[in-house]
Write a structure and sequence with these properties.
Strand content: 15-25%
GO molecular function: ATP binding; ATP hydrolysis activity; phosphate transmembrane transporter activity
CATH architecture of the largest domain: 3-Layer(aba) Sandwich
Number of domains: 2
Organism: Halocalculus aciditolerans
Pfam family, one: ABC_tran
Strand order of the largest sheet: 6-7-8-3-9-10
Protein name: Phosphate ABC transporter ATP-binding protein
Radius of gyration: 20 Å
Bound molecules: adenosine-5'-triphosphate
GO biological process, one term: phosphate ion transmembrane transport
Oligomer: single chain
Order of helices and strands: HEEEHEEHEHHHHHEHEHEEHH
Length: about 290
């Protein structure tokens, strides 16, 4: 007897879920999420979310407002730890280790898994200092009078780092002549690319991006989109976006969350947008709700 392929019944959603849980992408998983539940006080924001995120690719998280996309993203480098009401259950493996395990060094974790926020938030410092701040804090770069006196001034390393990160964020050509200018004098789009350059400065493996282009005009948005695609050659990018065209344009995989914090479908972006298995996902993508 033939089974319906698309219906809204829980039973069929469960079958769809079992199908995409088998989702077989090329390459290795950078992050492996298993049965993740998140609560804010008594309210559950994510329900038993499981998914593997492939390395060196772009994974988009989409879904209507309040479905838990940002909550999920924050779980991937334990930013929810900073929210006192938040409680996380389940596991997130990174390089084979549960980031929620005991003895995890959060500073090191967030160095490996960096984050870029919705509104550009450069430090009110020079463009150069925005990039060198992290490596200096981690003791990877030492400059200034004392370092000079001690004979370990890393000025050259700093220059190389600043250029590499600004090139990596497609900003070098626009700012190379004014590295000592205050970063707050840059345009919004340039500030956001500077924040991406800053995230690159500590040599992360994964970049988490929470609607990084939503505060930008169309030209700046298109530059950030191009950049995200390029970054995926070297980094694992996970991006939350409200913009379905954006997800379709730049991501390799798409995960669709729906109301109640449920991950309803996950797969190749083309399959999700052109041939979703779930009726609820099709309704969302075609604008019937959300
Ligand atoms: N700090 C918090 N304290 C309490 N509840 C929260 C907190 N952050 C999020 N929530 C709740 O958790 C649910 C998921 O929110 P979240 O911001 O993750 O959704 P989202 O899909 O990213 O939404 P949006 O697209 O509007 O940004 C919502 O019901 C929200 O009200």
């Amino acid at each position: 007897m033939s089974q319906p392929t698309q219906t809204t019944t829980g039973e069929t959603d469960e079958r769809i879920r079992e199908e995409w849980l088998e989702y077989d992408f090329e390459g290795d998983a950078a992050l492996s999420v298993e049965d993740l539940d998140v609560f804010y006080g008594n309210d559950q924001a994510l329900q038993s979310v499981s998914m593997d995120i492939p390395e060196k690719s772009v994974t988009a998280l989409i879904g209507p407002s309040g479905c838990g996309k940002s909550t999920f993203l924050r779980c991937l480098n334990r930013m929810n730890d900073r929210i006192s009401a938040a409680r996380v259950e389940g596991s997130v493996e990174f390089n084979g280790e549960d980031i929620y395990g005991e003895n995890v060094n959060l500073v090191e974790l967030r160095k490996r898994i960096g984050m870029v926020f919705q509104s550009p938030n450069p430090f009110p410092k020079s463009i150069r200092e925005n990039i060198s701040y992290g490596p200096r804090k981690h003791g990877d770069i030492d400059t200034g009078l004392v370092a000079r006196l001690l004979g370990r001034d890393d000025r050259e390393e700093e220059e190389e780092l600043v250029e590499r990160c600004l090139r990596g964020a497609a900003l070098w050509d626009e700012v190379s002549e004014r590295l000592d200018d205050n970063a707050l004098g840059l345009s919004g789009g340039q500030q956001q690319r500077l924040c991406i350059a800053r995230a690159l400065s500590v040599e992360p493996d994964v970049l988490l991006m929470d609607e990084p282009a939503s505060a930008l005009d169309p030209i700046a948005t298109s530059k950030v989109e191009d950049l995200v695609e390029d970054l995926a050659e070297d980094y694992t990018v996970v991006i939350v976006t409200h913009n379905m065209q954006q997800a379709a344009r730049i991501s390799d995989q798409t995960a669709v969350f729906l109301t109640g914090g449920e991950l309803v479908e996950y797969g190749d972006t083309e399959q999700i947008f052109e041939n979703p298995r779930s009726q609820r996902v099709e309704d969302y993508i075609t604008g019937k709700f959300g």
